[in-house]
Amino acid sequence: MSLIGAEGPDLVTTFAAAGIDILWHPSLSEASGSEVIDLMHALADGREPFDILCLEGSVMRGPNGSGRFHMMSGSDRPVMSWIEDLARVARYVVAVGSCAAFGGITAGGDNHVEACGLVYSGREAGGLLGADFRSRSGLPVINVAGCPIHPAWLTEALHQIAAGSFGVADLDEWERPLAYTVHLVHHGCARNEFYEFKASAEKLCELGCMMENLGCKGTQARADCNIRAWNGSGSCIDGGYPCVNCTAPGFEEPGHSFTMTPKVSGIPIGLPTDMPKAWFVALAALSKAATPPRLRDNATSDRLTIAPANRQKKKTRP
């Protein structure tokens, strides 16, 4: 659903520009039933060549590793068995979304369905294919993580693959494309002025920074959500909800409410990436002391009530 929302250009134009043909997709293709089973056999046997295997959603290995919780319709085989066969012959394997990459939401809680990602189970390497898996290109699984992904995160990766320019140097430590994870969600956040002065919101409907009280992980999360607009404009934070770091493994179980910031002695546990705690505490104290009244008041309001003052503009007297 996120992918078909691609714009500038649209999905069809994007694929055409890269010379990408979709052999089959459960929602975008007309083929179904025996046609699909025949195609899967041809792909797995090497009779029908293909370049890229994309998986959406986590792999269901239950019950007891049999995979029979998720059977391929029209066949007597679990979906996980088909995935293994196709991954072995694909030139590139791409996990689309945090479920396919790490297990995601489906693997949360007691995980009775034994859900996992292609090469990760949460933060643990392994998954369905094993930590040492490499596709025929020599690359590991490319984890386009996110819940959901921005459509351009995937289309950019596919364009690079189609151009033969995607390599190990384009991946971060979780094998996510650096094209979007070289950024923090914090970059470009519309609430950055509030963050700089530690002018914090106390409720979801308020305009201030959501890091101190409302669980926002934008200063830790790796993605370009506030630089690259979603659906023409906006992001989770622009919509009034804190960043939950959905591109990272284990985001689904933070150990507390998504809208709560755990603290020790009043200091948030999750500090900004690369920032020593002592520096943060010192800078936060200075910032709060210097907070302009405009920001302090607007931070706990559901709309801007005080405009910035222009000190160079002199008041005229009648």
Q: Could you give a quick summary of the protein structure above?
A:
With 318 residues, this protein is α/β, with parallel strands linked by helices.
Task: Describe it.
With 318 residues, this protein is of the alpha/beta class. The chain has 2 domains: 3-180, NADH:ubiquinone oxidoreductase-like, 20kDa subunit (Rossmann fold, 3-Layer(aba) Sandwich); 183-302, Cytochrome-c3 hydrogenase, C-terminal domain (Cytochrome-c3 Hydrogenase, Chain A, domain 2, Irregular). The protein is built from 10 helices and 9 strands. It has helices spanning 11-18, 34-45, 79-89, 98-102, 151-162, 178-181, 192-196, 211-214, 277-289, 293-299, and strands spanning 52-56, 59-60, 92-96, 115-116, 120-121, 124-125, 142-144, 263-264, 267-268. The strands form 4 sheets. A 3-stranded parallel β-sheet has the order 1-3-7, sandwiched between helices. Strands 2-4 form a two-stranded antiparallel ribbon. A two-stranded antiparallel sheet has the order 5-6. A hairpin with a 2-residue loop joins β8 and β9. α2 packs across α3 (79-89). The longest helix has 13 residues, at 277-289. The N and C termini lie far apart (61 Å). The relative contact order is 0.10. The model has no long low-confidence stretch (mean pLDDT 93).
List strands and helices in order, with pairings.
Elements lengths: L10 H8 L15 H12 L6 E5 L2 E2 L18 H11 L2 E5 L1 H5 L12 E2 L3 E2 L2 E2 L16 E3 L6 H12 L15 H4 L10 H5 L14 H4 L48 E2 L2 E2 L8 H13 L3 H7 L19
Parallel strand pairs: 1-3, 3-7
Antiparallel strand pairs: 2-4, 5-6, 8-9
Overall geometric form = elongated
Main sheet, how many strands, which sense, barrel?
Answer: 3 strands, parallel
Count of domains: 2
Task: Give the CA-CA distance, first to last residue.
Answer: 61 Å
Q: Under CATH, the topology of the largest domain is which?
A: Rossmann fold
What's the CATH class of the largest domain, please? Alpha Beta
How large a portion of the residues is in β-strands, by DSSP E? 5-15%
Give the SSE string. HHEEHEHEEEEHHHHEEHH
| Lateral strand order in the biggest sheet | 1-3-7
Radius of gyration: 23 Å
Any guess at the CATH architecture of the largest domain? 3-Layer(aba) Sandwich
